[in-house]
Design a protein that fits this description.
Strand order of the largest sheet: 1-6-5-4
Number of strands: 6
Distance between the termini: 28 Å
Largest sheet: 4 strands, mixed
Order of helices and strands: EEEHEEEH
Helix content: 10-25%
Number of helices: 2
Number of domains: 1
Amino acid sequence: MSIPDELGTVPILQLHDRNDATIPWQGGLTMDGWVYESLTTVLAAWARLHTCKIARKLTGVNTPYDGGNVNLRCHEYKDCHDGRVMQCMYDGHHGSWPKNTERLTWWFFS
């Protein structure tokens, strides 16, 4: 997987529900025939582009929006040179969003 060098300074926040069968975060072939890369593979490519410290396991991040009724939890690559690379997972289904998605996004980019 490759990402254009021009995006090397653009931070990425990946929000994904844990139970999505349409676009599974684990990647693979779906029932309708689409093949997806795993969230782990995609974020690792972004981490390489941002020259992050590559670790076997992402580091937990405390946000003002953790937990709640969707059990939101975020993790990120540490020591990135050119912007943050972070994922947040929550209990939901395809097309659902955590209650404070806009606030979480603003917090991330601020």
